[in-house]
């Protein structure tokens, strides 16, 4: 699986804790994107199985175990 640079950026700011897209936007440099960009990246990462949606509180995301491993691999590079 090949992630775009923006997907990698969103993956980098995600954690194992539940976060909203707004929280993620606030962690990304202003010139790097906006809410709709983050939401699209989350959808793509969700499709790849790297992110999961909170089943109780919609609109909250966190890394899956595969997402955590992929993030660790990216940080090593």
Explain what the structure shows.
The chain is mainly alpha-helical and 77 residues long. It has a single domain, classed as Arc Repressor Mutant, subunit A (Orthogonal Bundle). Helix content is 53%, strand content 8%. It has 4 helices and 2 strands. Strands 1-2 form a two-stranded antiparallel sheet. Strand 1 and strand 2 form a beta hairpin. Helix 1 crosses helix 3 and helix 2 packs across helix 3. It is globular and about 30 Å long. The chain starts with a helix and ends with a helix.
Question: Would you identify the CATH H-level superfamily?
Answer: Winged helix-like DNA-binding domain superfamily/Winged helix DNA-binding domain
Work out the number of β strands: 2
Rg over alpha carbons: 11 Å
In total, how many domains does the architecture comprise?
1
Biggest sheet strand order reads 1-2
Chain-wise SSE layout:
Blueprint: H1 5-13, H2 21-27, H3 35-47, E1 51-53, E2 61-63, H4 65-76
Antiparallel strand pairs: 1-2
Helix pairs in contact: 1-3, 2-3
Structure at a glance:
The chain is mainly alpha-helical.
